[in-house]
Specification:
By secondary structure, the protein is an alpha+beta fold. The protein has seven helices and 17 strands. Helices cover 15% and strands 34% of the residues. Helix 4 crosses helix 5.
């Protein structure tokens, strides 16, 4: 919502990361300073690098689009000669400006890379232990736009899985520090027994060796506040763009981290049929959905026994109160019929497409939403992607944050709108 509408959420941070009209990433961080009398004990304190705006005026707020040819702030600081027009040709000035833009992009890449490693993977110093519920998809004849009813999710199996991450070094000629680093994810079932993960897809939902460049947006990976999304996909043809498709399979994940807990949902999409017979643009159909309820360094059921708060946050009331806090736009009636809404234990609800068209317009995008209330605060993260063959490419990643006690009062009632940038 707009800055003025965010005022009731004093002390909280709302971040939107998006790509601009030529595909370059930019980040907007709106941080609202707590009042001196705010004794909230929330653990979501401001991080280093947050921009704190004093007072209610927001006079210093600036949303920067580096692709805007009229943008001049900071140019002189980076390249004083840019304002000396007589010393640069138009071509030379364009090169200098692009260098500045790329430096800013790389700074944002680094911020995303380090924030993801610190918040989602706990800097590699801890591991999440999770109780995973795998759902299979039951489709009636004709489901997916051919006249049948919507598919249904059926609980298929339960698993205990450990998840962690680490950084590794790679060789590079670049002088940019993070260009020599990669994030590697590891997930393995309890006991690491192959029999323990029959029926569960432990395939990658992320780049095998995740670099800072993988957070540019078109790869589908991004962090916003204490929420994140990641993605990996298999092109139909080897010669296809790995980030643009069309895809024979796509795996994506959305999640929220709070107070030593992590609640995330994995979506596994695949093409039905043989892609060797002119089926390149066949729709992606949901094959499997996995709900991961996790706690740091302890199995959730053990933590549940010792902590009523953890029990309620992960296994308590089914569904977010009143449905999604801020329902996103999902297109017209035809596209709306391709979505499922599911309530989950732990005050959580999810909205997602069960069938994703790859032959439509890029403008016909898709959204994946997770609403979760782990304690005093309620969070909703929306992964919004482009349409057509660019279903991997993020349009925006949005996070809404509100006190649970205030959620109904400040619930958006705009009929489903995108966050204003």
């Amino acid at each position: 919502r707009s800055a003025r509408q965010l005022l009731p959420f004093a002390g909280k941070k709302i971040t939107t990361t998006t790509t601009n009209h030529i595909g370059l990433p930019r980040s907007f961080v709106v941080s609202i300073q707590s009042s001196p009398n705010d004794n909230d004990d929330s653990t979501n304190n401001f991080d280093d690098g947050d921009t704190i705006f004093d007072g209610d005026g927001y006079e210093e707020m600036e949303f920067v689009d580096y692709s805007d040819p009229n943008y001049k702030v900071d140019l002189e600081a980076f390249y004083p000669s840019l304002n000396q027009k007589e010393s640069l040709t138009d071509e030379e000035a364009a090169v200098k400006i692009e260098e500045m833009r790329e430096q800013r992009r790389k700074r944002n890449d680094e911020y995303q890379f380090e924030t993801y490693f610190a918040k989602v993977l706990q800097k590699g110093s801890s591991e999440f232990k999770g109780d995973w519920t795998v759902y299979s998809v039951v489709r009636d004849a004709g489901t997916g736009g051919d006249g049948g009813g919507p598919p249904k999710l059926a609980p298929d199996s339960e698993h205990q899985v450990t998840s962690r991450g680490k950084k590794i070094k790679v060789e590079t000629d670049s002088e940019w520090r993070v260009d020599s680093e990669r994030i590697v994810h590891e997930e393995f079932p309890k006991g690491n027994d192959n029999d323990n993960h029959i029926g569960i897809n432990l395939g990658t939902y992320w780049p095998e060796k995740m670099s800072s460049f993988d957070f540019r947006g078109e790869q589908g990976n991004m962090v916003v506040g204490n929420a994140y999304t990641i993605c990996d996909a298999d092109p139909v043809r080897e010669e296809n763009n790995v980030d643009e498709g069309p895809f024979s399979a796509m795996r994506t994940e959305i999640g929220i981290v709070s107070d030593g807990m992590r609640f995330r949902v994995k979506f596994d999409y695949r093409i039905d049929g043989d892609t060797t017979i002119g089926n390149d643009l066949a729709p992606l159909s949901l094959h499997q959905l996995t709900v991961c309820r996790e706690t740091l360094d302890a199995w959730p059921l053990d933590a549940q026994a010792s902590s009523p708060a953890t029990s309620q946050a992960l296994f308590g009331t089914e569904g977010a109160s009143g449905g999604l806090y801020d329902p996103p736009p999902v297109g017209g009636e035809d596209q709306r019929s391709q979505y499922l809404f599911v309530n989950l234990k732990g005050k959580a609800s999810i909205l997602f497409p069960h069938t994703i068209d790859q032959g439509g317009s890029e403008a016909k995008g898709w959204v994946f939403s997770l609403d979760w209330t782990p304690g005093k605060w309620r969070y909703q993260v929306d992964r919004k992607v482009r349409g057509g063959t660019k279903v991997k490419c993020l349009r925006t990643l949005e996070l809404s944050e509100v006190r649970e006690s205030d959620a109904e009062e400040y619930r958006p009632r705009d009929g489903g709108q995108d966050m204003r940038q």
